[in-house]
Amino acid sequence: MFFIIYFAFVQLGYLLFGIQVYDFRSFTDSVFTLFRMILGDFNFKAIESASTFLGPVYFLCYIFFVFFVLLNMFLAIINDTYADVKTEVKSRKADFQMGDFFKTGVNNVKGYLGIQDRYSKPVIKVTNCAYFVTLAEELMWRMLSRSLRQMMDL
């Protein structure tokens, strides 16, 4: 599709400006001139002086269509590649990551040296707190049951 549009503009440039603009003197030179236009090397003054109306219209249409088609093709390639990589990542199983390897090694060394993690103390406090709450509840039930027995014995 790109080459159809590209060679249509090459032929149009050759027919419009071939006699007046040196860069469009032959079909082959027109191909190279339009390729240089894509890269940003062009002589707009020569095109405009050859035809004050058709020169700028030709130039703007060429730049618009070529960059529109090129950008669309580029985005399609990126989109296809992204979809392929995404399906590949989903299909492969998780590898053993280097971070996990080092983390396991550090934890093993800490265990051998007897170093506790910084998160272990709050967990112990929470479990002690829960233990004391259950202990307090048990004591309250015992005291309540004793007081009920004493009241019934009276």
Topology:
Layout: H1 2-17, H2 27-39, H3 44-50, H4 54-91, H5 98-113, H6 120-153
Description of the molecule:
α1 packs antiparallel against α4 and α3 (44-50) crosses α4. The chain is rod-shaped. It has helices at 2-17, 27-39, 44-50, 54-91, 98-113, 120-153. Helices cover 81% and strands 0% of the residues. It is mostly helical and 154 residues long. It contains six helices and no strands. It folds into two domains: 2-91, Orthogonal Bundle (Helix Hairpins); 117-154.
Write a brief structural summary:
It contains six helices and no strands. With 154 residues, it is mostly helical. The protein is rod-shaped and about 125 Å long.
| DSSP, total strands | 0
The share of residues in extended strands comes to under 5%
**Percent range for helical residues?**
over 70%
Main β-sheet description: none
Average pLDDT, to the nearest integer? 79
Give the CATH architecture of the largest domain: Orthogonal Bundle
Low-confidence stretches: 120-128
What structural category arises from helix and sheet content? mainly alpha
CATH domain fold name of the largest domain: Helix Hairpins
Number of domains: 2
Oligomer: single chain
- Distance linking N and C termini: 105 Å
Rg, rounded, reads: 40 Å
